[in-house]
Design goal:
The complex is a heterodimer. By secondary structure, chain A is an alpha/beta fold. Chain A contains five helices and eleven strands. The chains are: A alpha/beta, B alpha+beta. Chains A and B meet through loops of A and helix 1 of B.
Chain lengths: 231, 83
């Protein structure tokens, strides 16, 4: 079955069109926008919560968007095993709504960071990275609040359940301070829920899918998820 | 030593987009009685002097020159002597 991606559009989303373009025009999957005031997921198999600054990021990133009408449907969809990917602001929304554990703080440098980073794939026993052959991905980040934090107890749970999916590393795969762009706890760049159907990541895979733009490592994540439905 | 607490608010007649966006969240949650949400800043710091007049002058100047923009914001402050 060819999967359908539903890309949610909040007021202030700004990576919704990038995601739609990459999924539909570059990778050739079915894709449709889902306006945040609607409740229908329009038979999407995979929900994308895109990057941006939903509701101006006021109060806290993602704090207001999580109460948008569509998020009720997304929450139920995820609880029933539906696949949800939160990218950047979408990740922050997943944290606020409680589908993923932890919080996001301001970058340690206090600066908005926009650059390519290297990610180590920590776990391939999941649909998001299962079909990816390489272990390191090069994907851009662009955020001011990407400093992931959680308490020790949750961290232990994340580790023992293999929920940590991506960590910031050097180009040769070393986890160190220099390769951590935002002060994120344990260099965490992306995590999953326990059931491994909900995933959030700060880097922007939708920005590196088109070979015309150079890097295409982002497409590997979408291909891996799509493969799960094609099989 | 004095502890200063400062609240900086947008002037009542100036649009507060942050307050408006947050109020949209209140409506989504069904708080229909909530009106005119406005968001300001709370700032606290210490002034290391035993002279209350000096401390007060310094706090006021800090508020006027940096913590608030006098064109669009008002500020209130309180000073409390601490040991």
């Amino acid at each position: 079955m060819k999967p359908k991606f539903g890309v949610v559009v909040f007021p202030g989303s700004n990576c919704d069109h990038d995601a739609y373009y990459s999924l539909k025009k570059v990778l050739g999957y079915k894709a449709e926008f889902l306006w945040h005031k609607e409740k229908e997921l329009k038979e999407s198999n995979i929900i994308i919560l895109p990057g941006g600054f939903s509701y101006g990021d006021y109060l806290r990133t993602g704090a207001i968007a999580r109460f948008s009408p569509i998020m009720d449907s997304v929450y139920k969809f995820a609880e029933n095993g539906g696949v949800v990917i939160g990218i950047c602001n979408g990740f922050q929304i997943l944290l606020e709504i409680g589908l993923l554990p932890g919080i996001m703080m301001k970058n340690e440098s206090l600066k908005f960071v926009c650059k390519d980073v290297y990610l180590n794939i920590e776990n391939k026993e999941n649909i998001f990275t299962k079909s990816i052959k390489q272990n390191i991905l090069k994907i851009p980040i662009a955020h001011g609040d990407g400093n992931y934090f959680t308490d020790e107890k949750t961290l232990k749970e994340l580790e023992s359940n293999d929920q940590i999916l991506f960590r910031y590393v050097s180009s040769n795969g070393k986890v160190n301070l220099e390769s951590n762009p935002n002060g994120s706890f344990m260099n965490i760049a992306g995590i999953m829920n326990k059931k491994k159907n909900v995933m959030g990541l700060m880097p922007h895979p939708e920005r590196c899918c088109n070979p015309l733009l150079g890097d295409t490592d982002g497409s590997l994540i979408f291909r891996s998820v799509a493969q799960h439905f094609l099989n | 030593m004095f502890k200063a607490t400062v609240i900086v608010k947008r002037r009542q007649k100036i649009l507060d987009p942050q307050g408006k966006a947050v109020e949209q969240g209140a409506k989504l949650l069904g708080f229909n009685n909530v009106k005119q949400t406005r968001i300001g800043k709370y700032i606290e710091f210490f002034v290391d002097t035993s002279d209350k007049i000096l401390a007060e002058n310094e706090v006021r100047e800090y508020c006027e020159k940096l913590l608030s923009n006098p064109i669009m914001e008002d500020f209130d402050y309180a000073l409390e002597e601490v040991k």
